[in-house]
Amino acid sequence: MAGLVAGFAGLAASYCVAMVMTTRDSPVTAVAELVTRLTPGPVVERAIRILGHHDKQFLLLMILLLSGVVFAWAGRLARRSWWAPTIVFAVLGVVGGIAVWLQRGSGAIDILPIGVGFATWLVCLSLLTEPLRLHERALTAAAEVPEQPGIPARADHTRRTFLLRAGIIVAGTTVVGTVGRVVGRGRRHVEEARRLLRLPGVTGPHVPDGVRVGLEGVTPWATPARDFYRIDTAFVVPTIDPTDWQLRIHGMVDREIVLTYQQLIDRQVTQAWVTLNCVSNPVGGDLIGNAWWSGVRIADLLAAAGVQPGADAVLQTSDDGWTCGTPIGALTDQRDAMLAFAMNGRPLPIDHGFPVRTIVPGLYGYVSACKWVVEMKVTRFADIEAYWTSKGWSELGPVKISSRIDVPGDGGEVLASGGRVGGMAWSQHTGISAVEVSVDDGPWQPADIGGVPSTDTWVQWAATIDVEPGDHTLAVRATDADGQVQTGEEQDVLPDGATGWHTIDFKATETTDE
Ligand SMILES: Nc1nc2c(c(=O)[nH]1)N[C@H]1C(S)=C(S)[C@@H](COP(=O)(O)O)O[C@H]1N2
Ligand SMILES: [Mo]
Questions:
Q1: Closest to 357 measured CA to CA, from 255, 277, 332, 365
Q2: Ligand 1 atom 8 nearest Cα
């Protein structure tokens, strides 16, 4: 019983954490998916034919039953040693971990629920086995010295301790499991609504010709949604049914506007490739991605609302309360600042702001790219404080020109003669005109750069080097379309974005290993 109670407490904890993290299904579902994937097709088909649409529930039930048996067995093993059940659980954890790992688009963080489950189980099992051990000892003592009066009372006491703890753990398991269910159900409902959406006017993505420099290992120019970096402060990601979504545009405007989702998607659709990056991206970092966004121009909406003189900012508020202050100029000039409802031709992923988020070319995400946006207040910077600016980040967040070496990786190898190196460079809404590399602080030599559809995206670059075999360093710098050269002066990400040249160590070799 101790094994069962502790086992299911661990499962409930991992389930709840998975639901709250919202990125994936629970580990049990991941195992079920893995079993389905490993089962030969004909067997699956037969199972579906016999079980109808209940095949998934049946499989989940089987996995839970089997887990129950293993839990109970682990509890029995705990009688004799602490390590035997620990190994059993470690094995279960590894199976769950592998199943989660093999899911599409999972990352290291998705293993967290399993770690929490394992820790929960460990604590619960020792809480339960401790009084049992004392109980057995008391009973043995009672058998040996039957006339000792205190012993039956002691046995009684340990028994009560066990039952009390088991009761608390079962109650806790129920609460935690229910929380997981409620959170998970909201998400599943919204995922379903998202899947069923049809967005007229949303097309693509079609990657333009000529953007690739054709060097293996350089970051793909177009970032798939599942590889797109994610930054937000939300512990539980807002799950908003599009039919419940509304955006209120108010403040220093002539006419307040309230927009529903249907009204938004019925408007003229604007689409563009825009590279988004995070102000916290260190030099050489990967908090940057490039996607095909579809939405409605914010400039048109603000014009319809009628911005009053004196306003210089729009305070955007997310459904989860997060705020950012965006310079009104960037929202009303010619650029494609939009309320985006699709990313790469599909409704926004929930983690990237479903149903609607803001995208402003040329600004860091923290001052512009409000996910789950529900409110835009036209105002003055002097009158507002936004989430990150209240923590010391600068008020205006124009992106800084930067470049990065992808090939080779730091410490990697390159052919000494004719070796190819490459990476990415960006200066959104200004554009990149040149990229140069320098070996061992030597002269800057030009790289080839890929084509781009607009100044709002990053570019791929590649260069050929000729050096002596041995250890070297490689640095990269970019020049923007205005002729401004990326500075080598190093600055930390706080308060307005990092600067400096990405520099790596590499080894030049006479031949490649491959
Ligand atoms: N609601 C909300 N929107 C947000 C944030 C947030 O914490 N909450 N983070 C911002 C930051 S700092 C960045 S860099 C971008 C990241 O967007 P992404 O997660 O889609 O890549 O979202 C912005 N929008
Ligand atoms: Mo960010």
A1: 365
A2: 232
How many Cα neighbours within 13 Å face the side chain of 488?
9
Q: Which ligand is nearest to the CA of 370?
A: 1
DSSP 448-501: EE---SSTTS-EEEEEEEE--SEEEEEEEEEEETTSPBPP---B-STTT--BS-
Q: Of all atoms in ligand 1, which is nearest to the CA of residue 387?
A: 7
- Strand boundaries in 388-458, DSSP class E: 402-407, 412-415, 417-426, 432-439, 445-446, 448-449
Sorted by where each starts, the structural domains of the chain and their CATH numbers stand as 2-185 (no CATH), 225-391 (3.90.420.10), 402-509 (2.60.40.650)
> Of the bound ligands, which one is closest to the alpha carbon of residue 227?
1
- The strand pairing partners of 413, in sequence order, are 507
For ligand 1, whether the C-beta of 373 sits within 6 Å is no
Note the pLDDT tens digit of each residue in 318-335: 998 899 999 999 999 999
Q: Which of 22, 232, 376 to mutate to test the pocket of ligand 1 (most atoms within 8 A of CB)?
A: 232
In angstroms, the first-to-last Cα distance of the chain is 56
* CB atoms closer than 10 angstroms to residue 420: 18
- Count the Cβ atoms, other than its own, within 10 Å of residue 165: 17
pTM: 0.77
Q: Give the E-state strand segments of 90-242 in sequence order.
A: none
Cβ–Cβ under 8 Å, residues 131 and 158 = yes
Q: Is the dihedral of CA 215, 218, 221, 227 positive or negative?
A: positive
Residues 500 and 283 sit within 8 Å (Cβ to Cβ): yes
Lowest mean pLDDT among 8-12, 166-170, 236-240: 236-240
Instruction: List helix spans (H) across 78-149.
Output: 83-101, 112-144
Report the percentage of the chain scoring pLDDT > 70: 97
